[in-house]
User: Fold this.
Amino acid sequence: MDEEEDLEALGEQLYNQIYPKHAQIAGKLTGMLLELPGPVLTQMLQDEAMLTGALEKAIRALHLPQGPSKMTCKDEDDVSVSSDSLGEQLFELVDVYNTGHSQKITGMLLEQHKEAVFNLLSEPTLLEEKVHLALKTLKEQNVEETDISDSSDIDDTEKLGEKLFSLVEQLDPLHANDITGMLLEMDPSALLQMLTDHNMLEVAVQKAQTALETLSEPS
Assistant:
């Protein structure tokens, strides 16, 4: 119940700030902004520029066509012409959430069927859900890429080699160079996994040790 009370209090404060400038649509605008996460709303109440920006976007959203309207694919020209403006409209709404990834998220959402995109424009709760989902996906992708995927392949291999060497050295200081060299011939995605999965690394090092012993044995 506390959350509902907090939301009510935020709603009242927002309404009081919105009403003097937009009396006729203050209720609608407040309702739209209340779809945003609580911390964002609290920040808006303290930051007038942020609130003004969000209000401008919300007002623009109010003037958008609600639902698919006449947009059936009977006229290809209309559809292609509308794609840019559709992207702009969606970007304006996504940007309200201050994710820091508005452009990427808009691009992800625009990959859906056009009718689904129109639904997002007219249903704030659905849009919020999709924005959070897209943001989660982007964060997961960033984790997978790690910090060694931001330069050239040669640099990547060098950095990967350095990280691997420091881990291999702990397991077998004597043969760390040889083992690291052998491991670097593996698939990069497997090597990335080894950096975080110690058991996987140990198994790979043991295999490399066995291979080295076999090579050093007299034939």
Remarks:
- The two ends are 78 Å apart (CA to CA).
- The chain has a mean pLDDT of 76.
- The longest helix spans residues 124-145.
